[in-house]
């Protein structure tokens, strides 16, 4: 008779009434998966010599162990990472290369460790830790995915904060009837008269009346803001003292209307329908000191560079010409525009950078390097370009437009990204001037209104002021 099989002692000290078979473990391909059951022959309290901790509160998910390995980024300390893994898990672990693919914890007994091992992942559910990536910073190596949030775009008010009625403000593309002085005085040509409006106290003063046989075609303040030049329909150029409303000088020479004027420090340039540009010097008794001939049609745009060395002129012949102080011939002839060039602006931020805008058949703002004559950029605005002005506070440019959208646009330079598009005029926005502090522009149109817009930040603070001087809300008649 065979003897009964000997029971092998396992050395386990089991509770009374529990056999070794009651403790069952499930395995898949030899890997440990966990406890399937822990049974007891009775419903009484069961004791065990094994402690199984609760993992639910340990927040191990924050360590990103289940994420796909991220690509090694330039500048990361890969050698240090391998050394750390080797010290923690052994040299074989550090040299093991994963086969690829997303691995779920426990899905395979030989699952390769993720490269996200020891990379702390931001936990949005718990309180902030003093060792979180946001505090460690971008150089810690733990937060390479974290980037600085983009700066919100500057907000530009979409409506004018002031509107002035301007009766008889002409709807004529070739005239320049609005200018803002450095002493905060606005000059506007209305019919045969020039009116001055103080932005400090809203006081309106009538500067002059040219009479029934003449008319105002252009106005331009000196840089100091004490004298103003007036171009007339009869071709005269008059200079007035703005504080005393007294005429100082009258200069002739042009055969027909003088539609554009431009002062530098001491010279006044005037452009006319007679296609000529005259340079006037008040210290000289003659009407003009030089005559510049180059345009084949009416001159409608004139601007001196900020250093007084160059004069840019635009005409109805689609030409943009650049003159210097010492030559009677243009040093540059820029002919890429396909319509009249009235809008001209020199950058106050970069020497030799010139912007120009074309009329209805062109619609483009073009940028030029006047040192070599190269065109730097061209942007189709979709509408006739009537005026351009460069902000002195930030590197941005504002343009006003006519056919067909009558809008005002603010652009960043050099990207030419749109900062704002402003609407309100129901006719071509033919006139543009900027306040002395560079924050506010005034626009005029054939709808006989002047509108004031806060579009640029101040030099010191990024937030533009809400008002200037004693301006009030609503509409005011300028005379």
Give the helices and strands, then pairings:
Layout: E1 23-28, E2 31-38, H1 78-89, H2 91-95, H3 133-136, E3 162-165, E4 178-180, E5 185-190, E6 193-198, E7 204-209, E8 216-221, E9 227-232, E10 237-241, E11 246-251, E12 258-263, E13 268-272, E14 276-280, E15 290-293, E16 299-304, E17 310-315, E18 320-324, E19 332-334, E20 341-346, E21 353-358, E22 364-369, E23 374-380, E24 385-390, E25 396-401, E26 408-412, E27 418-422, E28 429-434, E29 440-445, E30 449-454, E31 475-477
Parallel strand pairs: 3-31
Antiparallel strand pairs: 1-2, 3-30, 4-5, 5-6, 6-7, 8-9, 9-10, 10-11, 12-13, 13-14, 14-15, 16-17, 17-18, 18-19, 20-21, 21-22, 22-23, 24-25, 25-26, 26-27, 28-29, 29-30
The proportion of residues forming helix, as a percent range, comes to under 10%
- CATH-level-4 superfamily name of the domain at 162-454: YVTN repeat-like/Quinoprotein amine dehydrogenase
Contiguous uncertain segments of 5+ residues: 23-45, 64-70, 96-145, 465-474
Q: What count of helical segments does DSSP give?
A: 3
Q: What is the number of strand segments?
A: 31
Estimated structural class: mainly beta
Categorize the overall geometry: elongated
Query: What is the average per-residue confidence, as pLDDT, rounded to a whole number?
Result: 79
Oligomerization category of the chains in this entry? single chain
At the first level of CATH, what is the class of the domain at 162-454? Mainly Beta
Instruction: Please list the strands of the largest sheet in the order they lie side by side.
Output: 28-29-30-3-31
The separation of the N and C termini measures 134 Å
Largest sheet, described in full?
A: 5 strands, mixed
Q: Compute the CA-based radius of gyration.
A: 39 Å
CATH 2nd-level architecture of the domain at 162-454: 7 Propeller
CATH topology of the domain at 162-454: Methylamine Dehydrogenase, Chain H
The fraction of residues assigned to DSSP E strands is 35-45%
């Amino acid at each position: 008779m065979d003897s009964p099989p000997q029971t092998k002692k396992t050395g386990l000290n089991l509770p009374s009434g529990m056999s070794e078979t009651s403790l069952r473990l499930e395995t898949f391909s030899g890997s440990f998966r966990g406890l399937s059951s822990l049974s007891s022959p009775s419903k009484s309290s069961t004791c065990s010599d094994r402690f199984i901790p609760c993992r639910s509160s340990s927040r191990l998910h924050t360590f990103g162990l289940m994420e796909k390995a991220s690509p090694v980024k330039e500048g990361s300390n890969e050698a240090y990472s391998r050394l750390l893994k080797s010290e923690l898990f052994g040299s074989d672990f550090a040299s093991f290369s994963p086969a690829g693919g997303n691995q779920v914890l426990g899905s395979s007994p030989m699952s390769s460790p993720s490269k996200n091992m020891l990379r702390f992942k931001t936990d949005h559910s718990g309180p902030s830790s003093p060792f979180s990536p946001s505090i460690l910073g971008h150089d810690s190596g733990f937060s390479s995915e974290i980037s600085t949030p983009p700066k919100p775009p500057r907000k530009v008010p979409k409506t004018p904060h002031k509107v002035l009625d301007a009766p008889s403000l002409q709807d004529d593309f070739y005239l320049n009837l609005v200018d803002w002085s450095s002493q905060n005085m606005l000059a506007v040509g209305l019919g045969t008269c020039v009116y001055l409006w103080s932005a400090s106290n809203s006081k309106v003063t009538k500067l002059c009346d040219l009479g029934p046989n003449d008319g105002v075609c252009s106005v331009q303040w000196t840089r100091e803001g004490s004298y103003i030049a007036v171009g007339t329909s009869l071709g005269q150029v008059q200079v007035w003292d703005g504080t005393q409303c007294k005429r100082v000088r009258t200069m002739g020479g042009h055969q027909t209307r003088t539609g554009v004027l431009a002062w530098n420090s001491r010279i006044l340039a005037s452009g006319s329908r007679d296609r000529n540009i005259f340079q006037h010097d008040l210290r000289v008794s003659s009407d003009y000191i030089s005559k510049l001939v180059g345009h084949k049609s009416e001159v409608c745009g004139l601007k001196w560079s900020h250093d007084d060395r160059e004069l840019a002129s635009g005409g109805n012949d689609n030409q943009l010409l650049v003159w210097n102080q010492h030559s009677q011939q243009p040093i540059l002839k820029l002919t890429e525009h396909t319509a009249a060039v009235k809008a001209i602006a020199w950058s106050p931020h970069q020497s030799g950078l010139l912007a120009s805008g074309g009329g209805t058949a062109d619609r483009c703002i073009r940028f030029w390097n006047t040192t070599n004559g190269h065109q730097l950029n061209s942007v189709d605005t979709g509408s006739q370009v009537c005026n351009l002005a460069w902000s002195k506070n930030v590197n941005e440019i504002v343009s006003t437009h006519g056919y067909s959208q009558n809008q005002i646009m603010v652009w960043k330079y050099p990207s030419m990204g749109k900062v704002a598009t402003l609407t309100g005029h129901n006719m071509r926005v033919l006139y543009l001037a900027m306040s002395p502090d560079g924050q506010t522009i005034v626009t005029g149109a054939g709808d006989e209104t002047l509108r004031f817009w806060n579009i640029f930040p101040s030099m010191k603070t990024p937030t533009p002021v809400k008002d200037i001087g004693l301006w009030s809300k609503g509409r005011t008649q300028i005379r």
